Amino acid sequence: MNDEQIIEMARQAGFEIGSVTNSIYAPTLCEFELKVFAKLVAEAERNECAKLVELNADACRSDGVAQMILKSNAEAIRARGEE
Q: What pTM does this model have?
């Protein structure tokens, strides 16, 4: 993830972005927003990891068993967010 993606996730979580410094600040208690933000970041990271596993699965076209295992691993990575 790059800085722009992280800032966008912070906006989605309810943080306000300062207009002068473009820094993230929390004007009030922000426990809820922090939890939402952490979930968004974790979800994005899981998705990126799953994409890498899927790329490896695509590279294993000649080995159906390896491809099946890798695709299953990608699904398991994404499913961790549903726990």
A: 0.63
DSSP state of 20: T
List the one residue out of 82, 7, 17, 73 whose CA is nearest residue 43. Answer: 82
CB 1 within 8 A of CB 44: yes
Residue 18 domain boundaries: 3-82
Element holding 32 (H helix, E strand): helix 31-59
Query: What is the Cα–Cα distance from 78 to 74, expressed in whole angstroms?
Result: 6
pLDDT, tens digit only, all 83 positions of the chain: 677 887 788 888 887 766 545 566 655 567 777 788 888 889 999 999 999 999 888 888 788 888 889 989 999 998 987 76
Alpha carbon distance 40, 43 (integer Å): 5
Give the total number of structural domains in the chain: 1
Distance in angstroms (rounded) separating the CA atoms of residues 72 and 80: 13
